[in-house]
Design a protein that fits this description.
The complex is a heterodimer.
Chain A: E1 4-7, E2 10-13, E3 19-25, E4 32-38, E5 45-51, E6 57-58, E7 67-73, E8 76-81, E9 90-98, E10 104-107, E11 111-115
Parallel strand pairs in A: 2-11
Antiparallel strand pairs in A: 1-3, 3-8, 4-5, 4-9, 5-6, 7-8, 9-10, 9-11
Chain B: E1 9-13, E2 18-23, E3 33-38, E4 45-50, E5 55-56, E6 61-64, E7 70-75, E8 84-89, E9 105-110
Parallel strand pairs in B: 1-9
Antiparallel strand pairs in B: 2-7, 3-4, 3-8, 5-6, 6-7, 8-9
Classes of the chains: A mainly beta, B mainly beta.
C-alpha cells in the first residue's frame, strides 16, 4: 500500500514551453501533497504544499506564477512549469500525506526535467 | 523542522548491522522522529518513525534515547541495495506536515 506515482518519469522540452507533471496517490486519499525539487548532488528542497480544493502554499523564493500547482482531487496533484528555461532543469518529486498513518508522507519516483 | 545533525557519510560491510546516528537536541515533547532514505535517482522512501519508544518494522529498528535528544536507525543486516542517503527529520508540529530535508548521511555498503 501507500504508493505514489508520477508521470512522466522524464521529459525533455524546448526553452519557453510549459510542462505538466502529474502526481497520483494510487491506494489512499491524500488531502495534502507536497512538491520538491532536487538539483544534482543536493538535498530535496520543498517548493510548495498542495491542499485538495484550495490554493497551494509556496515556500519563500518559489515563483507561484511559474510553478502552477493544482490539486483538484484527493488522489491527483499537478505541477506545471510554465515557460521553462534551462535553469528549471531538475528532478521534481512529489509526496502525499496519508492522515490515517500519523501523517507519514510517501514519495513518488520523481520526474526528471531537461530544458534545452 | 527541529534541527537534526547527522554524519555526512558512513561505510558498512555487507551483512553487518548499519547504525546511523542522529542528534535532535531541540525536539519538542510531541514531535516525531522520521527516517527516510533516497537511493540514487529515486524518490525518498519512508523507513520508520517514532515518538518515545523504540520501534521496529520489516526494514529497520529505531532506537530513541530516553531524553529524546538523539536516535539511531539500525539496519540489522545491510545489503548492497541499502546504499543510499539516509535522512533523519523531525517535522515541527506547526509546519502542517512539511518535511525539511537536510544533507543526510550517505551510507555506502561494501561487499
Amino acid at each position: 500500500g501507500a504508493v505514489v506515482s508520477q508521470h512522466p518519469s522524464w521529459v525533455i522540452c524546448k526553452s519557453g514551453t510549459s510542462v505538466k507533471i502529474e502526481c497520483r496517490s494510487l491506494d489512499f486519499q491524500a488531502t495534502t501533497m507536497f512538491w520538491y525539487r532536487q538539483f544534482p548532488k543536493q538535498s530535496l528542497m520543498l517548493m510548495a504544499t498542495s491542499n485538495e480544493g484550495s490554493k497551494a502554499t509556496y515556500e519563500q523564493g518559489v515563483e507561484k506564477d511559474k510553478f502552477l500547482i493544482n490539486h483538484a482531487s484527493l488522489t491527483l496533484s499537478t505541477l506545471t512549469v510554465t515557460s521553462a528555461h534551462p535553469e528549471d532543469s531538475s528532478f521534481y518529486i512529489c509526496s502525499a500525506r496519508e492522515l490515517a498513518r500519523q501523517e507519514t508522507q510517501y514519495f513518488g519516483p520523481g520526474t526528471r526535467l531537461l530544458v534545452l | 523542522d527541529a534541527k537534526t545533525t547527522q554524519p555526512p557519510s558512513m561505510d558498512c560491510a555487507e551483512g553487518r548491522a548499519a547504525n546511523l546516528p542522529c542528534n535532535h537536541s531541540t525536539i519538542s515533547g510531541n514531535e516525531y522522529v522520521y527516517w527516510y532514505r533516497q537511493i540514487h535517482s529515486q524518490g525518498p522512501q519512508y523507513i520508520i518513525h517514532g515518538l518515545k519508544n523504540n520501534e521496529t518494522n520489516e526494514m529497520a529498528s529505531l532506537i530513541i534515547t530516553e531524553d529524546r535528544k538523539s536516535s539511531t536507525l539500525i539496519l540489522p543486516h545491510a545489503t548492497l541495495r541499502d546504499t543510499a542517503v539516509y535522512y533523519c527529520i523531525v517535522p515541527r508540529l506547526s509546519n502542517t506536515g512539511k518535511l525539511i530535508f537536510g544533507q543526510g548521511t550517505t551510507l555506502q555498503v561494501k561487499p
